[in-house]
Amino acid sequence: MLLVIFLVPNNMNTLAQNINSSFNSPLGDLNKVSSLVTLFLNASFVLAGLILLFFFILGGIGMIGSAGKNDPKSLEQAKHTITSALIGFIVVFTSYWIVKLIGQLIGMPNLL
User: Fold this and answer.
1) DSSP code of 31?
2) Kind and range of the H or E element at 89?
3) Using one digit for the tens of pLDDT, what is the confidence trace for 33-51?
């Protein structure tokens, strides 16, 4: 018969603090609304960057694939994809700086 003993610490809060400090998790510092907003904005900008990269690669592959064909429609579609990705980049870049400016104006310079 195998007997397994689990050691449970008396203070589970201390264990949670130690895990947070070991892994440097941003979820452990969500004690204010501003830190939740900061986490959400950072995650959304990273996600927007990944989507932008995906569409640039997709448009580039479309341009390469349409180079050997005699089909101007596929080339225009690839150009449209890259143009849309570039416009999206400008929107995300501008929104990042608007959020930074708002953070400075309301007295929270480390918003992002």
Assistant:
1) S
2) helix 72-105
3) 777 777 888 888 899 989 9
